[in-house]
Write a structure and sequence with these properties.
By secondary structure, the chain is α/β, with parallel strands linked by helices. The protein has helices at about 20-25, 40-45, 55-65, 70, 90-110, 165-185, 205-210, 220, 250-255, 275-285, 305-315, 345-360, 400-410; strands at about 75-80, 115-120, 135, 140-145, 195-200, 210, 230-235, 240, 265, 290-295, 320-325, 330-335, 340, 365-370. About 35% of the residues lie in helices and about 15% in strands. The structure holds phosphoenolpyruvate and manganese (II) ion.
């Protein structure tokens, strides 16, 4: 399957066997829920429909696109919700997100004249890492909300209890979303595909969809620099590892190192240049183009820390793409109490990101944004803070609305 007419999602086929995840289970896995009933968890996982959500071929196609990105001067536009709602009409929500993503792909392509790869935080962005295990909600101290695949956002003890039945519901939502994406691809066969991504966080779920590599070997153990070595993660084209789970000794990085999928890692202000370089060596040992992307989310105040990180990484490996996530380092609390981000801070970080990469002799490869097609008011703009609960609808982090997304994209100059 090589042409643009090929569907990006799995046709019904005999399920592939799962890779043996035992090795990964022995490693420390941070940010995993404390399931009250592990028997129920295992029963739910065993009963999930085993079909792949994404094909090996579509993942390989993304790898090829990423490998050729620098040579072609292309850009990556990765965007979507902080966390996707699954208690909604998934088909229409997915269609709206696809239209939004493809609109801004054309927008960026037209503005820059560059080929632009569209990647959604889409069809599986359901699990959230949290800095605190507990939060105050509705006047109560409750376990933190961890995304719809784990618990529910309502401020009650019952809602916040991790419930394995949610894994089944979230998987059904992902299947429905992938069906909508497949319909989109069938209807637009002459256009460029779009790809999916999510944070590879909830390992019990992700490992259920890990398929052995063609040679049965882990990439990290047997890679020879050729495409196709390594395990296939069948839940998404392009998993990322978040800022709270990127530890070199942890299960998340070990799984990422074993994948044939391209992978990315969030790099924050607390990431030392040495750590970033070590991550680059572990995740891209054969220095393959397109294999590894770092997503810088430093915050506008700490963006200068990116300089030494970029230099250290490129002493370790040549081939790394750099994306800017100018959202996650810029989260503040508004005077109205809402969690927010100032569009001006987002623009300031994005601007410095491009200058720093360019000054270091590297190419900024694109953006990673939390943004929604809905007319929300979650981010603060020109001092206007969110005030209206009806226009503040995110389940977790504040997103850019379409006008704000356009304003931020206008500051891409690279
Ligand atoms: C996110 O992307 O929603 C997220 C939690 O990011 P980070 O890991 O960079 O904090
Ligand atoms: Mn977020």
């Amino acid at each position: 399957m090589t042409g643009p007419t090929a569907p990006r999602t799995a046709a019904p086929a005999a399920p592939a066997p799962a890779a043996d995840p035992a090795r990964f289970r022995e490693l420390p896995a941070r940010q995993q829920p404390d399931w009250p009933d592990r028997d129920a968890l295992h029963a739910v996982l065993a009963a999930l429909p085993p079909q792949d959500l994404v094909t090996r071929e579509s993942v390989a196609e993304l790898r090829r696109e990423l490998a050729q990105l620098d040579a072609g001067g292309g850009l990556i536009l990765q965007l979507g919700d902080c966390v996707e709602d699954i208690d909604t009409d998934i088909t229409s929500a997915t269609c709206a997100k696809i239209a939004f993503l493809t609109h801004f792909r054309s927008h960026l392509r037209t503005r820059t004249g560059r080929h632009t790869l569209a990647v959604g935080r889409l069809a599986g962005q359901y699990a959230k890492p949290r800095s605190q295990n507990h939060e105050i909600a509705g006047g109560l101290t409750l376990p933190s909300y961890r995304g719809p695949i784990i618990n529910a956002p309502q401020p009650t003890r019952q809602a916040r209890r991790p419930d394995p039945a949610r894994i089944a519901a979230a998987h059904t939502a992902a299947r429905t979303a992938y069906a909508a994406i497949a319909d989109h691809h069938r209807a637009t066969a002459h256009l460029d595909p779009l790809y999916t991504s999510h944070e590879m966080l909830l390992l019990d779920y992700e490992l259920r969809f890990l398929r052995p590599g063609a040679d049965g070997a882990d990439r990290a153990d047997g890679a020879d620099g050729t495409h196709g070595a390594g395990h296939h993660l069948a839940t998404t084209h392009w998993p990322w590892i978040g800022a709270r789970t990127r530890h070199l000794d942890g299960a998340h990085i070990a799984v990422a190192a074993a994948l044939a999928n391209p992978v990315s890692v969030k790099i924050g202000p607390d990431t030392s240049p040495e750590e970033a370089a070590a991550l680059a060596r572990v995740l891209n040992p054969c220095d393959e183009p397109g294999r590894l992307t770092f997503i810088a989310r430093m915050g506008h105040r700490d963006i200068e820390r990116l300089h030494p990180v970029v230099r250290a990484v490129h002493r370790a490996v040549e081939h790394v793409h750099w994306l800017s996530d100018p959202m996650h380092g810029n989260t503040v609390t508004a005077s109205t109490g809402f969690k927010t981000r100032h569009v001006e801070h987002i623009i300031a970080e994005l601007t410095r990101f491009q200058q720093i990469l360019t000054d270091t002799g590297r190419r900024p490869a694109g953006l990673h944004l939390e943004a929604t097609p809905e007319d929300v008011h979650e981010c603060t703009e020109d001092g206007r803070e969110p005030t209206d609960p009806a226009r503040y609808r995110t389940l977790l982090d504040p997103r850019l609305n379409p006008q704000q997304t356009a304003r931020v994209l206008a500051h891409w100059f690279a």
